[in-house]
Amino acid sequence: MMDNMQESKAVPDELASAAAVSSVSEHEQKQEQEQDQFAGIPQKVLRAIPFYILVPVLFWGAFRLSGYGLDWRGFGLGALGWFIAFFLRGPLSLVVQKWPKDRAQKVIIGSSGVLEESVRLILLAFTAASFNWAQSVGQGWAAVEVLFTIVNVIVILTLIKRTDEKAMQAKAMLLAQGNIGSSPLWGVLERIWASAYHIGATLLIAHTPWLVLLLIPMHSGLNFAALHAAKHSILRANMIIAITGLVALAGGLLLFW
């Protein structure tokens, strides 16, 4: 009787052990599959970084060839303005951190237009509004955002190589975006169009300050539209940013014509 009881007790123990081994095996298999999806990405991304650096250089060269040199004070002020707008999101993030994730994300994205365009307006109102000054401020704003993108890319590369819980959560979020296998050059193109927008928006506000009332919803709407489109098509997202950026730049140039 005791032997039968011991044998019946051993069966659940063996089943539990088998289940545990199966769970570990499935977890390892899942990790291997995720690693396969990220295979080769670090090399491709690292090769793209020089192209990111070229983006602000190309805009500097284009304005230089057009007869407008860079005012480094304005460039530095533009970079400072981007950082001010970025850090102003900190208090807002604290307010919404306990909100539902989707709602909090919408508030943060929606605040981008209010914060960035308001800071841009204040910087120009207290300094100068000439074409050369405004394009220098816009270039500084755009360039520091490119730098921030490069830093983000490097952070992502370090996460890809890690297997801790936080890294795995971050990789799951990247996979959920659906464009992890896309060429990093799409990101470079996105920086070109975004830079065009920032320079154009700075020119527009410098010439006609009240246009900030149009640029605030335009900026936030652009971020919402691009983020939504990127989930389905990275080409569509780039087209949205390209059209908006080029229209803003063309408008700013035409006003100072």
Q: What percentage of the residues does DSSP assign to strands (E)?
A: under 5%
Shape: globular
Distance between the termini: 100 Å
Tally of helical runs: 9
Query: What would the average pLDDT be, to the nearest integer?
Result: 85
Give a written overview of the molecule.
The chain has 257 residues and is an all-alpha fold. The protein has nine helices and no strands. It has helices spanning 2-38, 41-65, 72-96, 101-125, 131-160, 165-176, 185-207, 212-230, 234-255. The chain is globular and about 50 Å long. The protein starts with a helix and ends with a helix. Mean pLDDT is 85; it is low at 15-29.
Topology:
Elements: H1 2-38, H2 41-65, H3 72-96, H4 101-125, H5 131-160, H6 165-176, H7 185-207, H8 212-230, H9 234-255
Helix pairs in contact: 2-5, 2-7, 3-4, 3-5, 4-7, 4-8, 5-7, 7-9, 8-9
Q: How would you briefly describe this protein structure?
A:
With 257 residues, the protein is an all-alpha fold.
Output the keywords:
257 residues, globular, 85% helix, mainly alpha, 0% strand, 9 helices
